[in-house]
Design goal:
Radius of gyration: 21 Å
Distance between the termini: 17 Å
Oligomer: single chain
Helix content: 10-25%
Order of helices and strands: EHEHHEEHEHEHEEEEEHEEHEEHEEEEE
Structural class: alpha+beta
Shape: globular
Largest sheet: 9 strands, mixed
Strand content: 25-35%
Number of strands: 20
Length: about 375
């Protein structure tokens, strides 16, 4: 057993994966965004990931428990946590925080892809890309009590069918039988949300709407509608996207290689913005590759709005974790941990998602991928769990 964290990539082939995805009989997923590999990690990697996540959750404890005022049902129940594999002088790699956010994404796609991969790689049932679920339950059923506990559950988004994420939203309809609607189609009625077109009342909301993406008028209208539905329960409450966000990393003590600061409190600011290109700047509200300065100049950093609108992170060097067997191109990786939070249990990992790329940029929105790139699963042997 290796004392160092290790990860192994296993090719499945694009055509076998295409056929396996078809055999699952779930909604279509764009295969250009799916990797033709899966990955297995050793116990040391699992322990290292768990330690990073536990440290972050403990450090964010006061923020996670802070009430979000004036909005019924607002509580933190999910974190999306991204880590990269970066260079280490004495180990195969080191883990570094990339960003954190409080939203649910890719879980339906994750399960569809997992079912397809299970048909191909034939790992023992104890190899899981998530924490074990209680005996007698399956992953979909276990998550149902969290994402869609009521028969009348609506998943809301802004113009859902026009988004690149529509296949993921459609897969949510398939696995959890939820309705998917544009937020603007819903009306508050007797404390619930009502859809005039289907004459349905909804008592639970699975939120995928990011309020800061809306213009000022639509945001006020959306908040007014959703706040008036004061009898609904929530998963991924919209108030928490701005309560816990990538800027929250700046409030956590981190290792030197992943150091993160508010731009106005950074060593760069104190030193007259020297060596600015050794850092990366990120807008707090940015996502899917937006609000990102990979090689900022001193002038750009000095002009960023403050306070607490932008962060700077130490610019680390990712290290390849494998190479594609056909192209020979190196593959870099980021792990997304989808972490569930509940009052009656410790935080639980719903998904270990691995995003592979040939250039170290994990976001796949709006672009085609090359062999090996895309989303896949990271499996661990949980037989002893």
């Amino acid at each position: 057993m290796s004392a160092h964290p290790r990860i192994a990539l296993h090719p499945m082939g694009a055509e076998p994966l295409r056929q396996a995805l078809a055999d699952v009989r779930a909604p279509h997923l764009p295969q250009s965004q799916m990797s033709d590999h899966y990955a297995t990690g050793n116990r040391a990697l699992h322990d290292a990931l768990q330690a990073k996540v536990a440290h972050l959750v403990e450090a964010l404890g006061p923020q996670l428990r802070m009430p979000r005022p004036h909005w019924h049902g607002a509580r933190a129940d999910v974190l999306a946590l991204d880590l990269a594999f970066v260079e280490h002088p004495r180990q195969p790699f080191e883990l570094a925080w990339v960003e954190i956010q409080a939203f649910t994404s890719m879980l339906p796609t994750f399960h569809t892809l997992h079912q397809a991969q299970r048909r191909l790689h034939r790992l023992d049932r104890h190899w899981l890309p998530h924490d074990p679920v209680p005996h007698g339950s399956d992953w979909v059923g276990h998550l149902r009590c969290w994402v869609a506990p009521k028969p009348a559950t609506v998943l809301i988004e802004d113009r859902p069918r026009q988004r690149p994420t529509w296949p993921d939203l459609d897969a949510a309809r398939h696995w959890w039988q939820v309705a998917v609607h544009d937020w603007s189609e819903l009306l508050p009625a007797h404390g619930l949300l009502y859809h005039p077109g289907t004459a349905r009342h909804f008592g639970h909301v699975w939120n995928r709407l990011i309020l800061s993406d809306l213009d000022r008028f639509d945001r006020r209208r959306a908040e007014g509608t959703l706040m008036a539905a004061d009898r609904v329960s929530w998963h991924s409450h919209p108030a928490w996207y701005e309560g816990i966000h990538k800027g929250s990393l700046a409030d956590v003590v981190l290792a030197e290689h992943e150091a993160c600061h508010w731009v106005e409190a950074s060593p760069l600011c104190a030193n007259g913005w020297q060596a600015a290109d050794r850092w990366v700047a990120k807008a707090v509200g940015g996502h899917s590759g937006s609000g990102l300065l990979l090689a900022p100049t001193a002038e750009q950093l000095a002009a960023l709005p403050t306070p607490r609108q932008w962060i700077v992170q130490n610019r680390f060097r990712q290290t390849p974790i494998g190479a594609h067997p056909q192209t020979g191109q190196p593959l870099f990786g980021e792990v997304r941990c989808m972490l569930g939070l509940a009052d009656d249990r410790p935080p639980w990992v719903m998904a270990w998602i691995l995003r592979l790329s040939t250039n170290g940029i994990a976001t796949l929105t709006g672009r085609q991928t090359v062999p090996g790139e895309g989303m896949t699963m990271l499996y661990f042997d949980r037989s002893a769990a």
